[in-house]
Amino acid sequence: MKSKSNQIILLATLVMASLSALALKNDTQQPINIVSDNQSLDMDNHIVTFTDNVVITQGSILIKANKVVITRPPEKSGKKDTVEAFGNPVTFQQTLDNGKPVNGKANKVHYDLTTEFLTLTGNAELKQLDSKINSSMISYDVKKQQLKAKGSGNSRVKTVLIPAQLNK
Fold first, then answer.
1. 96: phi > 0 → left, psi -120 to 50 → alpha, else beta; which?
2. Main-chain phi, psi angles of 167, to 5 degrees
3. Do 97 and 91 meet the contact criterion of CB atoms below 8 Å apart?
4. Which of 12, 46, 78, 146 is buried deepest, with most CB atoms within 10 A?
5. Which CATH architecture has domain 27-165?
6. What are the sequence ranges of the domains in the chain?
7. What is the mean pLDDT of the segment spanning 133-142?
8. Closest C-alpha among 135, 140, 136, 139 to residue 158
């Protein structure tokens, strides 16, 4: 019985993550808009830093943070940007293609566009309707559509699933 419930939890988690990846693909075709109280540019190191009341929108994606650092690698390196967002917490939301919202939050969000790998650390949470995952760290490989959540110390991973909502 325990194995069966673990399989259900894993399946539901993968479904939530897979749906996010589908909407992410559509949203990434939209323009990125960034509004903040302050912005600084380090041209030598290819770093743009946005601070204080940072709001990023792209399609249905909405991210709010205290600080966002975007690092752009040299042109011929074959690498893409990395984005780090810091907050108390950083929050984000996105509407999936099926109309369901996905919300998340963490103290730090790191996204590497080269590897398409997203990491939420510090009081991390992913939520779809009333189903959610809480952990000290949640990572998501967009290409492989694989989600991992890890606890630390006395903090364990907590998942709450509402079957009726997952089936809709």
1. beta
2. -80, -15
3. no
4. 12
5. Sandwich (2.60)
6. 27-165
7. 87
8. 135
Written as six digits, the tokens of 160 are: 């709450």
Record the tokens describing residue 24, joined without a space.
């992410």
Task: Please give the single-letter amino acid code of residue 56.
Answer: I
Helix-strand-coil split of the chain, %, nearest 5:
20, 55, 25
109 contact partners, CB below 8 Å, separation of at least 6:
63, 65, 83, 84, 85, 90, 92, 118, 119, 120, 121
pLDDT digits (tens, 9 = 90+) for 20-45: 444 555 776 778 889 999 999 998 88
Query: Would you call 130 helix, strand, or coil by DSSP?
Result: coil
Amino acid residing at 129: L
Write the pLDDT tens digit of every residue in 44-53. 888 999 999 9
CA-to-CA distance for 57 and 77, rounded, in angstroms? Answer: 27
pLDDT, averaged across the chain: 79
